[in-house]
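> example.struct
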C-alpha cells in the first residue's frame, strides 16, 4: 500500500533505523484482503508487522516504536517529558491523517450517497489543524523524530489526495518545513506520488 500514510510512517522509520533490508514488504489490496493478513491482524488493517518469532504489531505508531527499540540512535527521546510532547504532536498529525483518510473514503462512495456536509467538516478540520501546526512548527523542530515522521506522512497524504486544497500556497512556512525533509532519502523513497 504505497499510498498508505500509515505504512509510510513505518517505512520511513525502517529506512532511518537501517532496518528496511530486514523487512519483507507484502503489497495488500484492502478490497480483497488475503486470509494471511486477517490471520495475523483480525482488524484486517495495514500496516501489520509480524516478527520472526511470530509476534504481531497492529498499529503504525506501535510498529514504529518497536523498530525504534531495535537499534541506536533512538528517534524517540528517552526522558518522559520529551516523550509526552512527541506523542502529543504525533497525535495531532495522526488525527489529520485519519480525517484525510475518512474524507477520501467518503469520495469513493457513489456520488448520490456522499455527504457534502461530512466532507466539508473533514476539510475544514484538516485545514484548521494545518494552520495550527504552521504556528507551532518550532515544537516539531527540524530533527527527525516520530513527530516529524507523522507530520511528513500526513502532509504527503493530504497533498496526494487533495491537491486542490493548495495548502502549500496558504502556509508557506509549513511547506518549506516539509520541503526540507523531502530531501531525506527515506522521505524520497516512500513518496506516495507516482
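> example.seq
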Amino acid at each position: 500500500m504505497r499510498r498508505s500514510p500509515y505504512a509510510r510512517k513505518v517505512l520511513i522509520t525502517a529506512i532511518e533505523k537501517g532496518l528496511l533490508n530486514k523487512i519483507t514488504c507484502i503489497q495488500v489490496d484492502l478490497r480483497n484482503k488475503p486470509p494471511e493478513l486477517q490471520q495475523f491482524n483480525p482488524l484486517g488493517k495495514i500496516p501489520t508487522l509480524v516478527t520472526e518469532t511470530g509476534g504481531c504489531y497492529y498499529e503504525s505508531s506501535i510498529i514504529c516504536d518497536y523498530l525504534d527499540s531495535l537499534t541506536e540512535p533512538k528517534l524517540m527521546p528517552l526522558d518522559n517529558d520529551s516523550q509526552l510532547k512527541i506523542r502529543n504532536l504525533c497525535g495531532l498529525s495522526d488525527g489529520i491523517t485519519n480525517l484525510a483518510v475518512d474524507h477520501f473514503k467518503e469520495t469513493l462512495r457513489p456520488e448520490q450517497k456522499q455527504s457534502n456536509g461530512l466532507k466539508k467538516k473533514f476539510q475544514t478540520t484538516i485545514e484548521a489543524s494545518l494552520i495550527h501546526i504552521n504556528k507551532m512548527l518550532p515544537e516539531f523542530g527540524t530533527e527527525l523524530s516520530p513527530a516529524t515522521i507523522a507530520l511528513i506522512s500526513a502532509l504527503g497524504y493530504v497533498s496526494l489526495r487533495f491537491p486542490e486544497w493548495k495548502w502549500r500556497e496558504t502556509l508557506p512556512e509549513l511547506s518549506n518545513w516539509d520541503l526540507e525533509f523531502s530531501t531525506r532519502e527515506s522521505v524520497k523513497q516512500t513518496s506516495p506520488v507516482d
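> remarks
The mean pLDDT is 95.
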